[in-house]
Amino acid sequence: MTFPQTLALRSAIGGLVIWIFLLFVTTADLASTELIHKIVLFGVLAVVPLGLSIVAPSDRNAGFSFYKLAVVMQPIAALLTVISFFFEKGLPAAALSASWLIVNIIIALYGLTRLISRGGIYPLAESSIDAGLLYLPIAGVWLVIYRLGIQPFGFGEMIILLTAAHFHFAGFAAPIIAGMNGRVLAPSNYPQHVFAFAIFGIVAAMPLVAAGITFTPLLGLIGTLLLSVGLLLLAVLTIGWVRPAIRQSGAQALLIIAALSSCSAMVLASLYAYSIATQTLILTIPMMAKTHGILNAFGFVTCSLFVWSRIAPKELMTDKETQIV
Q1: I want to staple 183 with a disulfide (CB 3.0 to 4.6 A). Which of 14, 204, 233, 313 is the partner?
Q2: Helix (H) or strand (E) holding 278
Q3: Cis peptide upstream of residue 123 (ω within 30 degrees of 0)
Q4: For residue range 135-193, what is the model confidence (pLDDT) as tens digits?
Q5: Smallest Cα–Cα separation from 242: which of 298, 190, 288, 184?
Q6: pTM of full prediction above 0.85
């Protein structure tokens, strides 16, 4: 394990400790947003560095400088972002959280370098990881907008905050998790078309969800359904093909929990998207935060990333050999 990779893992552990402490304090905004704040800060403090720890370059040529810079800057930017939540919305809070956007952009440059260095979208597992890295700045942009306190396009502050949360977990973490599963699947006899559609659904859903927020709820519903299908197929592959390839029973159990959590979370997300598109009250935003948000953040993302931080398949840059330890 390289120094930056070790640093990213230690940052995730330290971030988790800080986040646990934050559970006992309240931020500067409304009580109705407190739970979502905690979920977003969990993404900033723990999910992003944990994700970085499992996607380190296999050599010093494939974006190593961007990766190293992002890993070194991430803890500082994360702490500044946490501090921004204890200021009232405005320029000071936005300036503090802008440090997180800068780190997000560096991470995206690392993803772009990875993609260019391969000269194509194959292996799909690696392109899925690239997509997660490239989507992260969207989370940073909306987080800065939220801390600035403005509401572009007439969006309410709750929608802006939820968009920032969405792109930390569904935008950044989900494609990386799909890619890590794909690394394990690569040398085995598995339904390749199912995996390809799962990756398509997970990656292509993000701009549709964003378009749904900006233009029409119908696009958001289509994007949510596409993401749901992609994650459902990934769950089937995880339980049916990935899990048996791993020796540790504890890791197998966590992958099952992650797969079932993602399916449950996406059923709720689909119901919510349907309610918005049809203007039918089914689930409220606070209820979504308590159910979908927790299932997705802690059941799916955290369990999956923890497994892959302990069991790291070799990067499939030149061959299809995978090592499970």
Answers
A1: 313
A2: helix 249-278
A3: yes
A4: 999 999 999 999 999 988 777 888 899 999 999 999 999 999 999 999 999 777 888 99
A5: 184
A6: yes
